[in-house]
Amino acid sequence: MKLGVCYYPEHWPEETWKPDAKRMKDIGIHWVRVAEFAWSRLEPQDGKLNFDWLDRSVDTLGEAGLSVVMCTPTATPPKWLIDKYDDVLQVDVQGRPRKFGSRRHYCYNSASYREETRRITSVMAERYGKHEAVAAWQTDNEYGCHDTVRCYCPNCEREFRVWLEQKYGAIAALNEAWWNVFWSMEYNDFSQIDLPNLTTTEANPSHSLDFYRFASDSVISYNQLQCKLIREKSSYPVSHNVMLYFGDFDHFKFAKDLDIITWDNYPLGMLEQSPLPAEVKAHFLRTGHPDLISLIHDLYYGLKDQPFWVMEQQPGQVNWAPSNPIPAKGAVRLWSHQAFGHGADVVSYFRWRAANGAQELMHAGLNKHDGTPDRATTEARQVANELRMLGKKQTEVALLFDYENLWATELQKHAQGWSYWGLMFSYYHALRSLGLDVAIVHPRSDLSPYKLAVAPALHLVDEALAKHLESYVNQGGQLVIGPRSGFKTLSNVVQELAPGPLQNLMGLTVSHVDALRPGISDTILKGDETLSYSTWADLLRPTTAEVLASYTNPAYEGAAAVCQQAHGKGRCLTIGMWTEPEVLKVFLKPVLQSLTIAIQDLPEGVRLASREGRSYIYNFNPHEVKLELQDIKTTLNAFDLKFKDQ
Amino acid sequence: MKLGVCYYPEHWPEETWKPDAKRMKDIGIHWVRVAEFAWSRLEPQDGKLNFDWLDRSVDTLGEAGLSVVMCTPTATPPKWLIDKYDDVLQVDVQGRPRKFGSRRHYCYNSASYREETRRITSVMAERYGKHEAVAAWQTDNEYGCHDTVRCYCPNCEREFRVWLEQKYGAIAALNEAWWNVFWSMEYNDFSQIDLPNLTTTEANPSHSLDFYRFASDSVISYNQLQCKLIREKSSYPVSHNVMLYFGDFDHFKFAKDLDIITWDNYPLGMLEQSPLPAEVKAHFLRTGHPDLISLIHDLYYGLKDQPFWVMEQQPGQVNWAPSNPIPAKGAVRLWSHQAFGHGADVVSYFRWRAANGAQELMHAGLNKHDGTPDRATTEARQVANELRMLGKKQTEVALLFDYENLWATELQKHAQGWSYWGLMFSYYHALRSLGLDVAIVHPRSDLSPYKLAVAPALHLVDEALAKHLESYVNQGGQLVIGPRSGFKTLSNVVQELAPGPLQNLMGLTVSHVDALRPGISDTILKGDETLSYSTWADLLRPTTAEVLASYTNPAYEGAAAVCQQAHGKGRCLTIGMWTEPEVLKVFLKPVLQSLTIAIQDLPEGVRLASREGRSYIYNFNPHEVKLELQDIKTTLNAFDLKFKDQ
Amino acid sequence: MKLGVCYYPEHWPEETWKPDAKRMKDIGIHWVRVAEFAWSRLEPQDGKLNFDWLDRSVDTLGEAGLSVVMCTPTATPPKWLIDKYDDVLQVDVQGRPRKFGSRRHYCYNSASYREETRRITSVMAERYGKHEAVAAWQTDNEYGCHDTVRCYCPNCEREFRVWLEQKYGAIAALNEAWWNVFWSMEYNDFSQIDLPNLTTTEANPSHSLDFYRFASDSVISYNQLQCKLIREKSSYPVSHNVMLYFGDFDHFKFAKDLDIITWDNYPLGMLEQSPLPAEVKAHFLRTGHPDLISLIHDLYYGLKDQPFWVMEQQPGQVNWAPSNPIPAKGAVRLWSHQAFGHGADVVSYFRWRAANGAQELMHAGLNKHDGTPDRATTEARQVANELRMLGKKQTEVALLFDYENLWATELQKHAQGWSYWGLMFSYYHALRSLGLDVAIVHPRSDLSPYKLAVAPALHLVDEALAKHLESYVNQGGQLVIGPRSGFKTLSNVVQELAPGPLQNLMGLTVSHVDALRPGISDTILKGDETLSYSTWADLLRPTTAEVLASYTNPAYEGAAAVCQQAHGKGRCLTIGMWTEPEVLKVFLKPVLQSLTIAIQDLPEGVRLASREGRSYIYNFNPHEVKLELQDIKTTLNAFDLKFKDQ
């Protein structure tokens, strides 16, 4: 377990570098990330390289006993590079070229930019690939930030056609897969296919889904280029920092090319941008919501089923949310340990010192604009003192997450309030409020380590996935399946009634789906208990399953809401409606008890997290909490955290 | 009275066609609409026609005893056609070309597209014009859907100038009519006139109104081309399916070219998109609001004063509203009979079978995605058994509707909450809640069949119209005139104080108009009764009229709100303010009583409709209703309907 | 003190001119503004001048004893002029050319348009520069209306680069000033710099701030061109009519080139567009909010510290707000005298007669569409009878206003609810509700006339400004400083911790700033009194200052909210948080008392204004008010006004 910091030596006078490094070391920092936006200083003019300053800076850090994460500077190509070509800038979904003057202003499919990337990456890999002070790499920075995954430029149009031809071989196959006979959208040739923006009305969702896949693959192949070049010269691990609640590319697929997944954790900005109700936002104003943060921790742990890093940890205010409150006293310590508890190996603060100018001028750092320590320094120092080595996470419950289901359901929301992230959050929140650790994994991953697997919206399903899940249940696994599952094939079309290939496992069909306006809710009956739901209802028609609860609305004609059936040594529970965590818990608790998974009802804002070697009990509330759980009897101050070391 | 269905043989394997046809017949369906989106199958490549499959499909339907509505496929030109020309795609109001990939992607003023239309329409008219299984035509599909009436491309710019030159002859006449001296907008020549989009601030509303007229005429002349070509080869009636609450072209003018008006009735999508309050939307969640539906029925009956068809009737969920609830059990029967009660000759369900892919995949049909019957099948069968032949509607009350007044008042709303549709709905709702049938007619149509004519916002008035209305009143008609009437000439400018040429008839002038922010309401006094209004107030200054109610606000300086005067054998009542149905009824009831028109106060959600041969009593409420009216004493279940046959 | 009217002889038949002029004189009007939109009538075709009609019209007015304000017609270049060049139309922030068809459709940096401006202005200056009936000039009309200050066309790109080169000399200086090292935004050459629109994410705020300055300077230099040409031929004073709550160009800088500042006062449109709460808008529905109006009066008086004109005074409804209520009876009189009380020399009504066509058809005038007097005529006549000559305003309190602080803080709002105008309004409202007159001046102006100077958001501060303020306080001035002050240098970057160069004067530093979501409020403690704030908090850390109130939130770690320190003969009070007027008054009252400035607590909607010769007491409430102040005991009717003549 180590701390780190993001550092921009190019922003500060050289005489400050040495004292900065000394103070970093003194605080207890181990890692220092550099250079991800430094291209204009590394190459002020085309071909005129100037790495001396970076050499000296890295040496200074190394001499202070710090380890450097070296970044490729490709997120910010300089103006001379942009002006040299006419195919580097992106085109937005409105068809407008996106200009130079901020960052991420390049198209992943620009041949020119790939060539420039090759050149600068090779230079850096060569120069720092075996440098003693360097110990890890980061490619680029926050791929996709500012809506840059999906670019609508001529490069992308051309490459999309190539991608489609590789996927489908013949145009007739594409026409059939996309159901292009509808509205005479059939093509005679791949060269006729446009990008799916600015169509008269919505484009074919199969067309759009393939474009999303292509755009995701474009990011991945661009990143592979960088990884390959680095690895040719260096054996240090390669990482990239992904973002929160960002699903424009497939992170599971992307993660395969990296040694370390890192992410950028800004709890207050995340809270402000979330759709949580105003009173929840007010309650967690200065810490963020604990589950909103840890859902992302657990998801990114799951990308490679291994510890991750927080590459950028909010140390004070951010500048980019609509409003930007100061974190609570203690929040930085809380967030840091929460990350470790959920499987982080490194927490690295963004940034060493607040920027004195430009877009992020209002963003706090460990130090203020004048270089004096800001309050996060104190908390970081305390965290450094509290660290110890930990092992892997140990969890009995898995939540199944798939980026393609995010795309497919949100391309056809059908109910205004539908949100794939929102449904995931509802399940995740329910499980964590029961004191459980949760692994987040891809549906096609090995589920055998888990007693329980929960699949909230398993929308696109083929035979292989159905068999994979049946086999899990047959061997004793407990599966919980949520709404909209098994509705479509991977082509984003319907082949048989939902749940399609899952019908045997679930023992039911879905006769209809109901999609309610925000503000409308309705009820189900479980025995004589009335429970509510909103937004979405799958009308379940059991063939072999047992009914646990039914809808009360006569328009549903007696449809079941929740069903269960045994299958081999295991069982499958289907929850047909979108519902809030409190109602989910009504159905999940008996399942957990039957699996002898220990549950503990936690108060709002209090959570547990366990890792080999240490358990964490943390309180995100602005008030003291007395805990009287079975194993844990303790009092937590506001924003406090306790350890239970093993 | 017949049922129909929309069918896409090109979507399904040929072996299903015969059993499909048999089942249609068995349910009680008579009409089957085909081919409106089939161009890419009829002509997969330029000039390579392939009608064999359509021939076989039509034959199959005919052999089963079904009658075919044959459509021209022009709503969806294939990609090869789009690529062949550079002048077919539309340009949107933002100046962006609208791409291929959905539907309605053609400009009505493209010479190339008119030529292609001529070619394909002639082929179809020749092939099916006398086919025994075919019995009617539909041109294109839903002209104007997805904001496609008003196109901002170079074709339209060029043709707009021609249209203006034909209308005005000399540029000086246009400058004067548009009041172009204001802001130095005068032109020297027709060739200088741009389309009225992307101007620095709003364009001249006279310029915009003429552009709306031109765009409307473009749709009409495009449709005339198709009608003419079909009629050269066929004597079957020609129809087109228009949309709900859609006013971008003048349907009265358009209707003259057609034999049958048909429309597409989607009550739940209509409700979701309406501005009705959330509690009303919740109450009518699964049926839609009855008056929202029947206002459109009555309007389209009025287009030709003859029975219309519902060409597309919602049979389950739609896919295109923000949220898409399942209809109530019984709603499909209710909607079907409501249509017949309001003057439909045919109700045709959209669609036979749910689409397995593409944009409308989430839209229900009579059958599910797997081809098995969905619940609407049961209700359609029941409707078929309940049908009988009916005559014309019989109504004593006319509501005057004019698309140009819609355009002119909404181009200069003046009050944020102003809506022409909204005001029409308010009057219509008041009348129907009194148990009345309502004819909706153009202001210049023959009004002699009606005891009462109601004109809510008769904004653009010339001498001829004033004379027409005076003559109606002189001969004993009762006219009710609402706010904003007589304000402008047909050029969209003011020539004298409102009500302009109507002043003699109304016996008053309008000294000022007040335009209130949403949320503000104020009061009028009728005797000692205080009534409220909002949004709009015409300040009436009677010259010869009698005052029935006055505004209380001192800013209005004693203006009258409601006035009345006798004229010849009839009377004219002026209601100066925008108001809710309950207040309107206070003024309408005495008028109706004086005309000996029988009224019955109906509960919310319950309505009556009458047609020669049968009366309908229907209940859109989700609860039982006991009716104790003068003529009708009965109990209606939730979503139930009763007949009173003559 | 005089009345005026805006008149468009070109809109009306020549036979009406003489009677119109007679009636103007009869009402008591002295000034008549003409010709600002008349270009297409003055020059119907390129080079074919036709000034005869204007000559005759001016003669007619002069013969009636009226004085003419002659306008250059450059706000509306005719279509032939636009078509003659390809560089006149503006390009909007979305990159779209803005078309002809309304007004203000020219770019200030178009060389062609400057040439045409030179030509037409010279012709007019020559023709009317010594005309007896003419007595003043207006350049153009409402520079910047419809978002036209900031144009994104190639002219502006080119000129922006020139402007930057003149400002910075070397590109390295620009890179450093803008902190372009951040995100590798460094340039090698001025020719590389784009306009800051359509960047991938937000542009560098230093880049944007310089663009705003450049755009402001473009308006100013365009106006200088006109002033210079007029003055070559005429000695009549030159004016321009600026707008309400409009800050896109620097009015202090702009005002230097003019002899008279005039503005366009539309209280009801201003209220509708303001962010005031719905209940305040309802209360002041038919008068507007008095402080919303007089803040602008006082600001524009302050531009040159001399009486201004209201060039366009709302006389009835406007047409351009979302909703447009009728003014209260008496409102026109109230507004007119309010203007005189706040320092107007002329109030000129817009317009003589309502336009019968085009964009402003729904805008009232002194006369109705048919030429008969509208109600404002009566009130104008009364005002004329009540006028007397007055001297300068006499005020002890100054509010410091700077357009660059408006731009800089709104470019980086940080809190969603931040508004520079809103904060100014809060302070202004507090001061006026205490019965005080307020001078609004630029921070760098001579403050010695004022006992108290209030600086709500003095964001950009350099050494010179700090010294200027220190000197004011040293000599006995009382300074009140609000949030966000001293945060940045003029380059829009941070050089030292806030308040930067003001630290010595204020005796504190700002350790952090808190930026709260709308709806969140928190508290401060002043002694044992709890007061609330919202939106913004500067966390004050006194070095030498005394603490008057502290924040209660533990996240602030004991920070002070309000501090005070003596400095030389004066004192400086710092109010760190955004707060409502009632809380501001708690801190301002003791300060005012210590300065022996007399205060009087006024009821809502009642205000005082004083000018040498006359004091005004006015009541904007829709109800009667009994005043029992120290000096003033009187009863005011609804919308009434009383004078206290000296």
Commentary on this structure:
The structure is a homotrimer of 646-residue chains. Chain A contains 19 helices and 24 strands. Chain A is of the alpha/beta class and 646 residues long. Chain A folds into three domains: 2-80 and 108-149 and 222-386, Alpha-Beta Barrel (TIM Barrel), CATH 3.20.20.80; 397-594, 3-Layer(aba) Sandwich (Rossmann fold); 607-645, no CATH class. A nine-stranded mixed beta sheet of chain A has the order 10-9-11-12-19-18-17-14-15, sandwiched between helices. Chain A has an eight-stranded parallel β-barrel with strand order 1-2-3-4-5-6-7-8, surrounded by six helices. In chain A, strand 1, helix 1 (17-27) and strand 2 form a beta-alpha-beta unit. Chains in contact: A-B, A-C, B-C. Chains A and C meet through helix 2, helix 4 and helix 11 of A and helix 8 and strand 13 of C.
* Count of helical regions of chain A: 19
Give me the Rg of chain A, rounded: 25 Å
In CATH terms, the superfamily of the largest domain in chain A is Glycosidases
Largest sheet of chain A: 9 strands, mixed
Q: Low-confidence parts of chain A lasting 5 or more residues at pLDDT below 50?
A: none
- Residues in β-strands, percent of chain A: 15-25%
Percent helix among the residues of chain A?
25-40%
Oligomerization state of this entry?
A: homotrimer
* CATH class term of the largest domain in chain A: Alpha Beta
CATH fold-level label of the largest domain in chain A: TIM Barrel
